[in-house]
Amino acid sequence: MHTRDEQMKAFGRLLDVLDQLREKCPWDMKQTNESLRPNTIEETFELCDAIMKDDAQEIKKELGDVLMHTCFYAMIAREKEQFDIADVLNTEADKLIFRHPHVYHHSQVGAPNPRPLPYVPEDDQAPDEFSKAETSSDVLKNWEQIKLKEKDGNKTVLSGVPTALPSLIKAYRIQDKARNVGFDWQKKEDVWAKVHEELSELEAELSKEDKEKSTNELGDFLFSVINAARLYHLNPDDALERTNRKFIHRFNYIEAHSIRAGKPLTEMTLEEMDALWNEAKSDELKKQSKG
């Protein structure tokens, strides 16, 4: 692994390359925040995809792309004399210090101060009541309360949930933030009564063929299932993505067989497709047992 000095030089090299491209490359010269935004979203999803595959080389590459976009936005802001990458980094470091008083509060013996100039004054640190946290759960509970006390922080607990998040992830984050201020089931097992209740209400509306009410009840049911996943420390987005990949693999198996047999999928019976689906499933289980 590289030393801190080597890491800083590599970061500086990236900034130098971006500066040169901004000055000499026709594509880079014309980019704006708005034009970069779609690419940033794509790069973020590509990073998430690499993480799901647990592919270290791809993760490294995609992290570089996301980092490049971060630096590019800062470069554009510098040109407008709004801020630069140093402001971005210092703002983030200051925020982390403020939100981790159990590490950086003046009451902590030997508390580190990674930004000695300027020194973080005591009145810019989180209140004393947050200076103790013995578990990660304590940290998360403190986190939401501290963010409400930040000078430019969230005005309400749920205001920190980005509106543009995909709905499944947003539901998880909403529930998680509510939990951190004590709004949660006392026992995780209690959630199942709610899940069954919401499923019954969904089935009732579906039987009436009322699309509007059925849509509302479907949302409530999905929200309750996500809640159950959270309580059992399962990531519903990761779980659904695993199922997506599993379905794609098995369906591709069926399609590949149909191509080899010279029989289009549209001419195959459901029974034939089910048999091939089970073959693909059995093959997966054999590979898992060997692995």
List keywords for this structure.
291 residues, mainly alpha, 0% strand, globular
Task: Provide structural commentary.
This protein has 291 residues and is mostly helical. The chain is built from twelve helices and no strands. The chain has helices spanning 4-24, 26-29, 33-53, 56-79, 85-99, 101-104, 136-149, 167-179, 191-207, 211-231, 236-261, 270-290. Helix 11 (236-261) packs across helix 12 (270-290). It is globular. Residues 115-122 have low confidence and may be disordered.
What's the average pLDDT?
86
Radius of gyration: 25 Å
The proportion of residues forming helix, as a percent range, comes to 55-70%
Low-confidence stretches: 115-122
Number of extended strands: 0
Percentage of β-strand residues: under 5%
Shape descriptor? globular
Main sheet, how many strands, which sense, barrel? none
Helix-strand category:
mainly alpha
Q: Ends: how far apart?
A: 29 Å
Topology, pairings included?
Blueprint: H1 4-24, H2 26-29, H3 33-53, H4 56-79, H5 85-99, H6 101-104, H7 136-149, H8 167-179, H9 191-207, H10 211-231, H11 236-261, H12 270-290
Condensed summary:
With 291 residues, the chain is mainly alpha-helical. It has helices spanning 4-24, 26-29, 33-53, 56-79, 85-99, 101-104, 136-149, 167-179, 191-207, 211-231, 236-261, 270-290.
